[in-house]
Amino acid sequence: MATLLETRDLQKHYQMGGATVRALDGVSLTVGQGEFVGLLGTSGSGKSTLLNLIAGLDRPSGGSLRIFDQDLAQMSGTELSLHRQKNVGIIFQSFNLVSTMSAAENVALAMMFAGVARGEREGQATRLLETMGLGGRQKHRPRELSGGEQQRVAIARALSNDPHLLLADEPTGNLDSRTTAEIMGLLAQLNERDGKTIIMVTHDAGLAEKYAHRTITMLDGRVIGEEAEGRRPSDKE
Amino acid sequence: METAAEKGLDGVWHPSNLAARRCLLPSAALISHAFWQSRYGGDPNILQRTIRLGNTPRPIVGVLPPGFHFPRRTDVWSNQTTREASRTRHAFLAVGRLRAGVDLESARSELTAIGARLEQQYPETNKGRGVAVTPLQDVLVGNVRLTLYLLWGVVGVVLLIACANTATLLLGQASARTREMAVRTALGAGRGRIVRQMIAESLLLALVAGASGLLLAAWGVRALTAFTPADVVRLAGTGIDGGVLLFTLGVTVATSLLFGLIPALHASRVDLIDAIKQGGAGAVSGARMARTRGLLVVSEIALAVVLLAGAGLLVKSLLALHRAALDFESSNVLVMKATGTRPDRRPRMSGGAAQVRLRWERLCRPLLRSARELAGLGVDLHLFPLLDEQGHADLETGLERRGFRHAAARRVAADAGLGRGHRQLDVRRELQPDRTAVELLHLDQHVVDEQQPVVADHVPLQRDGVEGLLVHEVIAGAVGILEGRVDQLEIRLRELVAGLEGLVEDRLGDHVAHLDAHERLTATGRGPRHLDVDGVVGRPLVFEEHLPLYLDCLNQRCHSLVL
């Protein structure tokens, strides 16, 4: 399995008043292509910080973070924007759809930033929403959709530029158990069928163990455990 | 002569029409658009009609465009030739266009040289006289330029306040949309794209506002011009044209860029992680926004205070102007004036001053009697003969010849008894004694005897509030103390003028061909403007209401001001 992501002694420090908070304190890990990794840990363990660094939403304070052999720590602002457009799709816990836009427009938004032509992105948005089972909800605005439907739209948006890596930050944190199962099934399908690499932050160890190939447990900004007892990764790679 | 009508020109004729320009032969006349409308009801066959000026019928060869007021609110323009032998007429205003390639300084120096040569050649009449060359624009708008700049400044400050207000609102909106901007950034939007988006939204808002402003201006310009004094230069030309559209577009784009940039930059600097998690502005960004908002609000308040202070000072100045001591009681003083005949048609009277005075008294007594009968007014009348014993009416040379000086003018005015017994006209004005004297000299320009003006009749005030009626230059005007209602008096005076008009024509025949009211008095827009085919009569004014007009008259040395 080819390596998609590799961190070495990754550091992220914040200044809070006079004190230095070490959100990440020397994280080293690798993620292979097509892998489904669950990041486990208590609140404040650093898992979301790690996800934000991988997404290019933040910059590391030290160490290295390489995706497709590119060091994110060395990237300019514009290069990080391109990284977010092309390499990663982000799924948020609270969906973060633009409330004034329809489902189709939300999906097309990321493609617009990537410079995809209008007709092409509209077609792609329609296809993705149909794939997510939202064929008849394209014109609906977020407030007209249920939580599960909104998260499906968010997943479709994350997939719109066909990234290799999906980053999901508590994707089912705001959903009921039935919808959680649906969304997790969808993510598993994307991993299995389309070969998307997925890194999912979750509190729920059971969920991670059920759907992820591997779980990484963090505490106080460090990796304290790594298990590969979950679902077996597909052997596409 | 081939008139415009004979040439088959139909409808309104403009002087820009070269073919018609050639038709402006001696004895032709042009009329103003307002006169065409009010006097002839906008008759489309106006070019087939004539107008009597003096006792000469003149074909109307054109109607000037609406709003053409030069000089001032002229209604009829006609050709005039001066007496070749006369070197004493210095009151003419000449207007010319500089030839291409000739600048103002060259023209000025050339005309100054000509003036100097004439002065040398004709020392009797031209001594101390030169030529003043002034751009026509300065003559037309010189008085209002400062006011316009002031207005411009005020509008600019109001615009700044509006912009600061909008920027504050946009900042608030940007704060509310922080999460959206963070999501857009997380999806790959660069900072430049976020800034462009915000500016585009700001521009759209400004364009809608600009379009609304233009719409409002289109509706409001007519109302505003109706409220504006009619003698404002090129008032009728006020409107929305290409220049206004371009200016509005420029201001719209500039302000939207300038004031849209602040919220746009703030929106592009959001703390991504915090904004996505919390949906808020983020601590750092929020504090920065609050600071900027505070700055904008403070600027807004400061500008508003400046504006309010300026407006307050303006109002204070206006009040001070209203309360300024004029050295005479202006309340309820009524002014009306109608001027008389063409100089060359004025009745000539020969003989000494006493004979002239006698003749004039004989002429004017029936007028006064009729006036009283017509209006039912008790009037205090003072008559002044029109011309000197040679029949000359030239103001300045006439006065100089008679050795008129300020003191004499004051004596004349005092002898005229303006306001005598009820209001005291104090001619010892301290502020501008020379100017006052000039006005008074103008008032009495046709007094024959500098020592003692002729008092033809004197009837004490009886009723209806008019104390005095000053008649000069055959039918000239009235200055009285109004104690009744002005509208009642206006009706009476209108009847009076109409009656006098007929009487004068009856008595003087061709010598009095028309009445011509002082144009400024007709500028009020109220009351009938035209009473007779050949006459223009203004409504009476109350000084209290028209103090600015009076001051304006003073400033412009308006020779027909009666007081």
Structure summary, number of beta strands of chain B: 10
Helix and strand element order of chain B: HEHEEEHHHHHHHHEHEHHHEEHEEH
Identify the most extensive interface between protein chains: A-B, 24 and 16 residues
Report the biggest beta sheet of chain A as strand number plus sense, adding barrel if it closes: 6 strands, mixed
* Biggest sheet character of chain B: 4 strands, mixed
- Low-confidence stretches of chain A at least 5 residues in length (pLDDT < 50)? none
Distance between the termini of chain B: 44 Å
Order of helices and strands of chain A: EEEHEEHEHHHEHEHEE
Kindly report the name of the CATH homologous superfamily of the largest domain in chain A: P-loop containing nucleotide triphosphate hydrolases
- Looking at how many chains there are and whether they match, the oligomeric state comes to heterodimer
The geometry of chain B reads as elongated
Report mean pLDDT of chain B, rounded to a whole number: 59
What is the number of helical segments of chain B per DSSP (H or I, 4+ residues)? 16
Shape of chain A: globular
CATH level-two architecture of the largest domain in chain A: 3-Layer(aba) Sandwich
The count of domains of chain A is 2
Which structural class matches the secondary elements of chain B?
alpha+beta
Describe the structure.
The complex is a heterodimer of chains A (237) and B (563). Chain A is 35% helix and 29% strand. Chain A has helices spanning 47-55, 77-86, 103-113, 118-131, 147-159, 177-194, 205-211, and strands at residues 3-16, 19-32, 36-41, 62-67, 70-71, 88-91, 165-169, 197-202, 214-219, 222-227. In chain A, β1 and β2 form a beta hairpin. The longest helix of chain A is centred in the last third of the chain and has 18 residues, at 177-194. The N and C termini of chain A lie close together (6 Å). Chain B has helices at 18-21, 33-40, 104-121, 123-126, 136-176, 178-186, 191-227, 242-268, 272-278, 283-323, 353-375, 395-401, 406-416, 433-443, 486-508, 547-555; strands at residues 29-31, 50-53, 56-63, 76-78, 333-339, 380-384, 468-472, 477-481, 516-517, 541-542. In chain B, a hairpin with a 2-residue loop joins β2 and β3. Chain B is elongated. At the A-B interface, α2 and α3 of A face α6 and α9 of B.
